[in-house]
């Protein structure tokens, strides 16, 4: 490890000039972390919400469909953190310029997505097979824009391959301002358990903030992982689906307080607001996405399977919401037997 522990970044999480209000962040998720989802997470206390990954090729050509992925509101989302993927340095640099031109306050490079379609095309986690390429990509973007550049990655492509502990110093030399480490090998996908000891090891020596990611399924676990690892932040992904309050709860747990459980009224209100915002963004097409999104908010409640069937039969958002309201008005619900108390 070429860094000394004395160079460890301060505990407050800042990305370049941006001091974040919370160390608990919303992870980028393909097809999910659109502006309505990010807005809701920020409203519930997320310190940062990253866009879903955006193709550098498509963005560099300024396609309208791709530009819609950059929808935000500067009054509500600062810093605006845009994640890009690509393997052509010039194209990635151009895409970063386009993102900044559309309001991005920081640009994240995806070196960690393990999805087969992404990896087979040489993108995402496949970048970990070629550290020279990773360096050229990071350097090209850092030189092309004046906003902070961050990287989200994994431990290595697979055991025995060169690891993030070798790559990270090189990325910092290229100008990278923060690194998010998902504690798995790329070849693992999402199997096995995330290695937070790897996060702690990187955080102990890195001169830039290290953000940990992987298996943060509850607020208490997110708070504990952040404390134990010494990371500057913790990035929550799938556990935030239908649980935007997990960011508020994680802050409470980190402070040693009991996380407040959402009431049924709060669950319904959050689901309704999420649906309304999606409808504003997508129009009638929102009904197809809401077949999944609305179920997020009730998945731990008895009877949710019947609600799923009712919502899946509908192609109209208003009727989907009517089904959701009827579900909540039917009576009080408790978590399924054996489940952890509350969606923490």
Name the features.
344 residues, alpha/beta, TIM Barrel, 2 domains, eight-stranded parallel sheet, 14 helices, 42% helix, 12% strand, globular, disordered N terminus, disordered C terminus
- Say how many strands there are: 10
Distance between the termini: 36 Å
Average of pLDDT:
91
The tally of domains stands at 2
By DSSP (H or I, 4+ residues per run), the number of helices equals 14
In angstroms, what is the radius of gyration?
20 Å
In terms of DSSP E residues, the strand content is 5-15%
Reported by name, the CATH topology of the largest domain is TIM Barrel
What's the level 1 CATH class of the largest domain? Alpha Beta
Please tell me the CATH architecture of the largest domain by its name: Alpha-Beta Barrel
Share in helix:
40-55%
Instruction: Decide which structural class fits the backbone.
Output: alpha/beta
Shape: globular
Largest sheet: 8 strands, parallel
Spatial order of strands in the largest sheet: 3-10-9-8-7-6-5-4
* SSE string, helices as H and strands as E: EEEHEHHEHEHHEHEHEHEHHHHH
């Amino acid at each position: 490890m070429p860094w000394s522990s004395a160079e460890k970044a301060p505990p407050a999480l800042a990305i370049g000039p941006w001091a974040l209000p919370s160390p608990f962040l919303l992870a980028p998720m393909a097809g999910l972390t659109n502006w309505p989802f990010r807005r809701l997470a920020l409203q519930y206390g997320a310190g940062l919400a990253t866009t879903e990954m955006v193709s550098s090729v498509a963005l560099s050509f300024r396609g309208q469909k791709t530009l819609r992925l950059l929808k935000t509101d500067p009054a509500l989302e600062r810093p605006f953190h845009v994640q890009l993927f690509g393997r052509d340095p010039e194209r990635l640099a151009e895409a970063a310029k386009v993102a900044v031109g559309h309001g991005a306050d920081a640009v994240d490079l995806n070196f960690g997505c393990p999805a087969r379609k992404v990896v087979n095309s040489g993108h995402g986690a496949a970048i970990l097979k070629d550290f020279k390429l990773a360096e050229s990509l990071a350097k090209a973007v850092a030189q092309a824009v004046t906003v902070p550049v961050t990287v989200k990655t994994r431990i290595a492509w697979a055991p025995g391959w060169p690891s993030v502990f070798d790559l990270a110093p090189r990325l910092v030399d290229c100008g990278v301002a923060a690194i998010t480490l998902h504690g798995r090998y790329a070849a693992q996908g999402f199997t096995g358990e995330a290695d937070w000891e790897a996060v702690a090891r990187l955080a102990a020596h890195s001169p830039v903030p290290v953000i940990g990611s992987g298996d943060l399924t509850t607020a208490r676990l997110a708070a504990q992982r952040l404390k134990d690892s010494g990371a500057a932040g913790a990035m929550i992904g799938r556990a935030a689906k239908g649980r935007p309050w997990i960011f508020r709860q994680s802050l409470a747990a980190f402070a040693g307080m009991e996380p407040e459980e959402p009431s049924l009224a709060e669950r319904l209100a959050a689901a309704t607001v999420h649906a309304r915002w999606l409808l504003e963004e997508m129009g009638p097409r929102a009904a197809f996405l809401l077949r999944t999104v609305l179920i997020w908010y009730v998945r731990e409640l008895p009877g949710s399977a019947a609600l799923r069937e009712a919502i899946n039969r509908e192609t109209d958002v208003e009727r989907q919401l009517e089904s959701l309201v009827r579900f909540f008005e039917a009576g009080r619900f408790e978590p399924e037997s054996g489940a952890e108390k509350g969606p923490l």
